[in-house]
Amino acid sequence: MSTELESQPHVILWGVAKPPNAPSSSGFCQKLEAFLKYSGISYEVGETVPMKAPKGKVPFADVKHDGKTVTISDSHFIIRYLVENGLIKDPDTVAGLTPVQKGESRAWQAYIEELLYSAIVRDRWYIDENYAVTAEEIFGGMGWPMRPMISWFFRRKVKQSIWNAGMGRHSQEEAQSLQIEAFEALEARMSGHLYFHDSQKPTRIDLIIYGFLANTLATSGNPYWADMVLRSSTLLAFTKRMTTLLFPEYELLLRRIEEAEVLSQQQVDG
User: Are residues 31 and 212 in contact, defined by beta-carbon separation less than 8 angstroms?
Assistant: First the structure.
């Protein structure tokens, strides 16, 4: 029996410390876990810090299969490795997406990951009141004096990374205007659809969108973006549907969504 279990593919997802029964504080870690959970592959989540990662960022993964262990960095390349080596099925192939649909998905992926999420993370670490909340959520379990030292170090690193990427060079108003544009575009694209491409099951882009929506709704460190999503019946319904499908144990996230739905209905009823 043990030999049979050991022969099964297994993934160790290495990411930042993750709270129990809640999404990761890293959107990319949450995206990857959504893929792993949906695929049905055996996996576990391990705790690390970006400085220990091969590329200096998380997630990275140890993929065990066929008697070997392969370490891969970056959520995109991890997913690609799993698909290309037949360890998981490609949701896009299962859904029968056309090359045009796959191209649209890839464009939206870049928009969400490279622009929108960067603008949201900027809010978390550049705005002092958001940073105080973010630091408490991520480092609150640490003792003194390590907590303020580690928190300060991470803030400096993240701010420098966001500045180097270009998002930190924008004003707060400009960065938040990019969030508004992305929100309006995403809400319009998802309106009237269970899933992005009107498929019967989630495709890659659905799992990507979900990963970042779950991540941003599970924190109080990005209120500007979260407030928009919490007023959107379209995005709330999508996030609730995907959470119920993949992570029903995310009870606090589901409760936040349901409370927003009730409030929205009360406003409609007057």
Answer: yes
* pTM, to two decimals: 0.95
By C-alpha distance, which of 211, 212, 209, 203 is closest to 94? Answer: 203
Q: Which letter does DSSP use for residue 197 in this model?
A: T
Residue burial 22-56, b: 16+ Cβ < 10 Å; e: rest: bbbbbbbbbbbbbbbebbebebebeeeebeebeee
What gap in Å lies between CA 74 and CA 17, rounded to an integer? 17
The DSSP line for 128-149 is: HHHHHHHHHHHHTTSPTTHHHH
Q: List per-block mean pLDDT (blocks of 10 residues) for the chain, which spans 270 residues.
A: 67 93 97 98 95 93 97 98 98 98 98 98 98 91 82 94 97 98 98 96 98 98 98 97 98 98 81
User: Scanning the structure block, which residue is given the tokens 């960095």?
Assistant: 73
Question: How many CA within 13 A on the CB side of residue 270?
Answer: 0
186 and 209 Cβ atoms separated by less than 8 Å: yes
State whether the Cα torsion 190-193-196-202 is positive or negative.
Answer: positive
Is residue 46 a contact partner of residue 14, using CB atoms and an 8 Å limit? yes
